[in-house]
Q: What sequence folds into this?
């Protein structure tokens, strides 16, 4: 490498560094008002999220309660159905005797007619 190439390299490096330094700026710092505004915004967002989580918790707990209530009602209906089915009479004669029409006709048939009197001789 010659002396001219080293000098050229240093010149190019100096130009690049000069451009980088010339365009670099310090970041603006937060002043007290900006920090307070940022804190207020963060608190407002936290309060909003907290109220949304509370609402979601209420909805989920209500939905869970309704699911358990529906399960209880369905279970109770099944138990009552089985109980009534087991308590129903299975004897055909007993089933027939529970019918009011059959009982009425049986009562008519079982009426003992009054004995006939012989005709009176005049």
A:
């Amino acid at each position: 490498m010659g002396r001219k190439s080293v000098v050229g390299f240093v010149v190019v490096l100096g130009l690049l560094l000069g451009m980088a330094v010339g365009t670099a700026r310090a970041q603006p710092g937060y002043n007290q008002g900006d920090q307070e505004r940022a804190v207020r915004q963060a608190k407002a967002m936290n309060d909003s999220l907290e109220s949304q989580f509370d609402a979601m918790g209420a909805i989920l707990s209500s939905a869970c309660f309704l699911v358990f209530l529906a399960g209880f009602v369905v279970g109770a209906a099944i138990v009552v159905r089985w109980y009534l089915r087991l308590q129903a009479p299975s004897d055909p004669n007993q089933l027939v005797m529970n019918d009011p029409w059959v009982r009425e006709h049986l009562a008519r048939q079982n009426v003992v007619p009054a004995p006939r009197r012989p005709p009176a001789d005049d």
